[in-house]
Design goal:
The complex is a heterodimer of chains A (about 425) and B (about 500). With about 425 residues, chain A is α+β, with helices and mostly antiparallel strands. Chain A is about 30% helix and about 25% strand. In chain A, helix 1 runs antiparallel to helix 2 (about 45-55) and helix 8 runs antiparallel to helix 11. The longest helix of chain A has 15 residues, at about 265-275. Chain A is globular and about 70 Å long. The two termini of chain A are about 30 Å apart. With about 500 residues, chain B is of the alpha+beta class. Chain B has helices at about 10-20, 30, 55-70, 120-125, 145-150, 160, 195-200, 235-245, 260-270, 290-305, 315-325, 330, 350-365, 395-410, 430-435, 435-450, 465, 480; strands at about 25, 50, 70-75, 90-95, 100-105, 110-115, 130-135, 170-175, 180-185, 210-215, 220, 225-230, 255-260, 280-285, 310, 340, 345, 370-375, 380, 385. The chains are: A alpha+beta (about 425), B alpha+beta (about 500). At the A-B interface, helix 2, strand 9, helix 7, strand 11 and helix 9 of A face strand 9, helix 8, helix 10 and helix 16 of B.
Chain lengths: ~425, ~500
């Protein structure tokens, strides 16, 4: 606490009084209330702030839109929240090369709007993570958050081609570049994907972009039991379809296939997909309404959320398990990923039983977001040598434990859950 | 991380105990087979070669090296082009060729588990009958190993659409630099913890040795169309590529060859390429409608950019012949030049014409010919600098020309390597692309995996021993520490 007080002037001299304030309860990170919130205006200020913080043994948590602060275990300490909300510049949009470079604090929605407004063919960053329109590039990368289109385009780690970042001790660096193919040096930026801001503060990201497909269709199959849904998904695989997304929501028993491509191709494929799956093609208004409804599932309500990975062919078994545990689930069926919101009343032993059931079908479960009395667990029962490597990486890049110490680990109290 | 003073003695008996007596080579004649990889201009004879058969043997071999303080270098098929598998003098080469089994194939879940010595093409062969393929396809795919592909994050022609090795490795068993065994990643998606595989894939064998790899396979698209377009200048072909990219059309592959490359290929394999200044080989795939729509777009754009001839491969054998020429291009250079140096650089796709023009200017400046055969769709250039080692000074001139091409790539906003890796070859060029802070951070990442600095030392990052004096490590000034001054 003393160190926060004595560091105040130094922090203020970097960003100016206006951009340093006392924290409020609403600034809590997974329940841990910081002392200060500081909002740097550029990367040099980020570096200067972190030099002062690591020097004074202050713990810092980086925050973008604040939509995923409850992801990851509560940090052991949090003195300062470093907000990226002034780092909102589109540094470069090389439309002809289909890449962009963007500062970490820019909300994804803003980026998409700016890309779409550029002259030439319409382009997008092909990420559609659920959970909040305020979500920023930095937060999405740090959580490696992805949505329906990951079936075709992957997750942030697959689209990131370069990064700039600052370590906890203020060392500034970059990796990758702004070309779509590049193997020069260690891909530090990719390692930051999903690291929850515990290894470095991302300040800038470069992405590969894709054209906005001229045509799209939504095909749905409603009120279907697990076996029927699994069968339909399997048929889509054999079809070699141009599906950009294949979502199943449970307990609704709803299959949603998103086809994207040329107008002629999706028109023909939609009919074929509907025939094979026994579903129907939605008209445009229905499709848009459904898209809005599903956009933020299952994150839109309170409660812990599990991230699940299962072998893709075990979809039917996964849905049975989800039924048993009464969880609200969205499955990205093409890749075997799922996000499941647990009931508010759920306790540690139930989560442990859920995890065991998922392991029983060859999958794994991470409690991505905490809820109620349950803290998130990012790192359950990992391979011990891999865990040693991870700890070694954290020590090497952040030896003073400045960046959200403990957030990447299961909290000791929860590790027995 | 620099090894200094007298080199430690290779623990031959301990190596025999680790991997079996028949797995350890120490005869000079045997060792010479391992003195270089595909970067044949640089050679170092190792003190011993170990050829283990199991993960446990690899781990025991590494532990024996560590106990003796001896550096070790993993090696796959030795086809790498950046000297990533160059031995360290007085060190041990761990060759993984005997670990060449496909361990499991799971079509329903689209996963294949292989040992590192399995060739790239063997993965596709293992799943082809089920209608699947392994997407990364380096030109050396019939001989290069998956272990080497993982180390180099290998690409290939079809990576434009399907992604690189890093997009297809789900999990791996890693023998750590101190000889322990770790499981990284997960056969299913979204595995817990840091994405350590993102560092190991493309880590050039400096972060440990991969002994088992779980790969993602991809359904073969129902329709594949291959288009060959001829142009009367490289610049015109380059602008066609830029236009294809800018139009938002995404083919599976866009390859380019210039006149010199075409002549060499024709002499070697008679692929039937037209006699012209440049050829684009464009492949599109997907559903039949999708593929035909995209192919029509490609035709239209190529014509608009001045294509003098357009051909569609009629059937699989014509398609195979078109690709045979492309894949044989590097080897075919022997037909037109006694020796050549393969450069590997990347540029933004908008800069193709400009940089290709720059290479032409360098050719006349240096009096060396440059053949171009490369992955145009993702801006990955492979200029082949031709030289005759018998002519005094020509090898050096060629080498300097190749270096100048990299400068062009950097100036255009690109990179010094797109798929061949940094290795020994370009370690000293890294400071051109990365500032001191970035290199120090990469050094810290490496230290986290290999604190003793014994795992493939001297590769990827510049060192004073390799590169002469490099700028000293930055240490903050007392005034900075006090917060009085800032480094700008």
């Amino acid at each position: 606490m003393t160190s926060v007080v004595t560091s105040l002037d130094r922090l203020a001299s970097i960003v100016g009084e206006r951009w340093l304030r006392e924290a409020e309860p609403a600034d809590a990170v997974a329940g841990v209330v910081p002392r200060l919130v500081v909002t740097p205006g550029d990367e040099a200020e980020v570096a200067a702030l972190l030099r002062v913080a690591s020097d004074a043994a202050l713990a810092v948590t980086v925050r973008g839109g604040g939509t995923k602060l409850d992801w990851g275990a509560p940090p052991r300490r949090c003195d300062v929240v470093l907000s990226t909300r002034r780092l909102v510049r589109l540094v470069e949009h090389a439309a002809g090369d289909m890449v962009c470079v963007v500062q970490a604090g820019m909300p994804l929605e803003t980026l998409q709007a700016q890309l779409a407004a550029a002259p030439g063919n319409r382009q997008r960053l092909m990420l559609d993570p659920p959970q909040g329109v305020a979500a920023t590039i930095g937060g999405i990368v740090s959580c490696n958050a992805a949505g329906s289109r990951r079936v075709r385009y992957g997750t942030p780690r697959d689209l990131l081609i370069g990064a700039r970042f600052v370590l906890g001790d203020g060392t500034v660096g970059h990796s990758g570049g702004k070309v779509v193919k590049n193997v020069a040096g260690y891909d530090v930026g990719r390692v930051l994907c999903g690291a929850l801001g515990t290894l470095a503060v991302l300040t800038e990201a470069a992405f590969r972009l894709h054209p906005v497909p001229p045509g799209w269709r939504i095909v749905v199959l409603e009120d279907a039991p697990p076996a029927r849904l699994a069968e339909a998904v399997e048929k889509l695989r054999r079809l070699g379809s141009a599906a950009a997304g294949i979502d199943v929501t449970w307990p609704q028993g709803l299959l949603v296939v998103r086809l994207e491509g040329s107008e002629a191709a999706v028109g023909a494929q939609a009919g074929e997909v509907a025939a094979r799956s026994g579903g129907r093609v939605l008209d445009r208004i229905e499709a848009e309404m459904l898209g809005e409804q599903l956009r933020h599932r299952p994150w839109e309500s309170a409660g812990a959320v599990a991230g699940i990975g299962v072998p893709r062919a075990r979809l039917g078994a996964l849905l049975e398990v989800c039924s048993d545990f009464a969880v609200d689930t969205v499955v990205r069926a093409g890749v075997g990923a799922a996000e499941a919101r647990l009931p508010l009343t759920v306790d540690g032993p139930t989560v442990a039983a859920f995890r065991t059931a998922i392991a029983g079908i060859g999958g794994h479960l991470v409690l991505r977001r905490g809820g109620g009395a349950l803290p998130a667990q990012v790192w359950p029962d990992g391979d011990p040598v891999a865990a040693w490597l991870a700890a070694s990486l954290k020590r090497s890049l952040d030896p003073t434990g400045t960046l959200s110490p403990g957030r990447e680990q299961a909290a000791p109290a929860a590790s027995s859950a | 991380m620099e090894t200094s003073g007298a080199a430690a003695a290779v623990p031959v008996e301990a190596l025999r105990a680790a991997a079996g007596a028949d797995a350890v080579l120490t005869e000079p004649a045997q060792l010479r087979a391992y003195e270089c990889d595909g970067l044949t201009g640089t050679r170092v004879v190792p003190a011993a070669v170990v050829l283990p058969r199991t993960t446990a043997q690899v781990a025991a071999t590494v532990r024996a090296c560590c106990a003796a303080g001896v550096p070790f270098v993993a090696r796959g098929s030795g086809t790498g082009l950046s000297g990533g598998a160059l031995p360290v003098a007085q060190g041990v080469v761990i060759g993984l060729a005997r670990m060449n089994a496909v361990l499991s194939v799971d079509i329903a879940n689209e996963r294949v588990v292989v040992q590192p010595g399995v060739t790239n093409l063997a993965v596709t062969q293992a799943v082809a009958s089920a209608g699947y393929f392994y997407a990364p396809d380096p030109s050396s795919q019939s001989v290069c190993s998956i272990g080497g592909n993982v180390a180099e994050n290998s690409g290939g022609a079809h990576c434009l659409k399907y992604g690189f090795t890093v997009h297809h490795v789900c999990a791996a068993t890693l023998v750590t630099a101190d000889g322990r065994i770790a499981r990284l990643g997960s056969a299913t998606v979204d595995g817990p913890g840091y994405d350590l595989l993102a560092a190991v894939v493309g880590g050039e064998g400096t972060l440990g040795i991969v002994t088992e790899v779980t790969l993602r396979i991809v359904p073969r698209p129902p329709c594949v169309l291959t288009v060959l377009a001829a142009f009367d200048s490289m610049e015109a072909a380059g602008s066609a590529v830029s236009s294809i990219v800018a139009a938002g059309v995404l083919p599976a592959a866009v390859e380019m060859m210039d006149r010199l490359a075409l002549q060499a290929v024709e002499a070697a394999v008679q692929a039937g390429y037209p006699d012209c200044a440049a050829v684009l080989l464009v492949e599109v795939d997907g559903s039949e409608i999708e593929a035909r729509t995209v192919a029509a777009d490609i035709d239209r754009i190529c014509r608009a950019c001045g294509a003098t001839e357009l051909r569609r491969a009629a059937g699989e054998s014509e398609r195979a012949l078109m690709w045979k020429g492309r894949r044989a291009a590097f080897a075919a250079m022997g037909r037109i030049s006694p020796s050549y140096y393969v450069q590997d650089g990347v540029i933004p796709r908008t800069a193709l014409s400009e940089v290709l023009g720059g290479i032409r200017e360098l050719e006349s400046e240096y009096g060396c010919q440059v053949a171009n055969v490369f992955h145009a769709g993702d801006g990955n250039l492979h200029p082949l600098v031709l030289f005759d080692p018998a002519v005094p000074g020509e090898a050096e001139r060629g080498r300097e020309l190749a270096e100048r091409i990299l400068d062009l790539c950097i100036a255009a906003g690109g990179s010094i390597t797109g798929e061949h890796g940094v290795g020994t070859d370009k370690a000293c060029s890294m400071p051109k692309l990365f500032d001191e802070g970035s290199l120090r951070i990469m050094g810290r990442l490496r230290d986290a995996f290999d604190p003793a600095g014994l795992c493939n030392p001297g590769k990827l990052l510049p060192t004073p021993r390799l590169c002469g004096e490099v700028p000293g490590v930055y240490r903050p000034h007392a005034l900075e520490i006090a917060g009085v001054a800032e480094r700008l």
